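## Example pair
The file below holds two records. Each record gives the amino-acid sequence first, followed by its structure token line.
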Amino acid sequence: PSTERQHEMLRGRVTIPICDELGEPVSITGRAVHPHLEPKYWHLPFSVSSVLFGLDKAWPHIVKVRGALIVEGAWDTIALHRVGYPYTVGVLGSTIKTPQVILLLGYCKRAIVLPDHDVSGAGLKGAQMTVERCKMYGMEGRIAHDLAYSGDPDDLARQDPRHLAEILRAA
């Protein structure tokens, strides 16, 4: 898209940088401030498969706990860091890509995937694909989910952090 179009897409959104594992900015992502603004999330083009959102901040914690918590997006990652899960990374999509698994393998061999719980079931399907891809590369992978909850990890972290803790413990 043209620079003008990119600026227009970021209008009305809270924006933050997307950084690689070294903390170098590779793009910008934005979340709509108003519910009527579509799409809800948008980012400037970049190679999504080469980045795990938040890894630049999360890697020391991932090494310490010998595992990572994987979510879909940047906002989920930020929310989980804020409520005490600093070993969280976001795949910036519904499922992890092979280069992201290889990147994560440099820090741990174990991952828990916390999917979005949407009506379509796409979040859970993406989580299953993420676990399968992790296992293909020798990582242990599990899904943390609660069928009684509908929403995304960002909402759960803000609205009910105790329930979030229960879901993660059960995984």
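Second record, same layout:
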Amino acid sequence: HVCVTWISSGDAIAHSYYAPGEKVTPLGTSKRKGYSFAGWYSDAALTQRVDFSNFLMPTSDVNFYAKWTSNEFHLKGLAKSSGTLTQHWTRTNYVNRLRISRYSSRVTIRPLRYTSRSKIFIKTQDGTYRAMSSIKITLKRGETKTIYIKCVSQTGSRYTSVYKVLVTRNR
């Protein structure tokens, strides 16, 4: 018999044995918090998806790699009418700093989506999130305002990422 090694997140999670020419049955998938299973692949780079409907076991051992896609939906970026934007987006910290000139008292921020499958909400002064394509902010010299932008997936399960934008007007 020939061995199939099932690999997920870099670790071998199971081994199956088949005779050469035998039809291979895909391993059931485990859950991974924050991710959705996206199929088994025959290469570690996850470029060659395996079609198990017609896959027959070869004469040598094979590895199959689990592909996982993040359930987080992120902003592609922020468009702004003025100022210098510094983005610090990591997996756990979505903070953006927007600094505008002391000569400019208003700025418009427009969140950009990665896909049409996500919806953008902006937190208003009354503390509620509203579906908005942009927000206009007026600032006094030296003032900083915090804007929260929520990006929500519109597929199956609803996943959310919240971004914090600190907007400061120079003195």
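Notes on the second record: The mean pLDDT is 81. The chain is about 0% helix and 55% strand.
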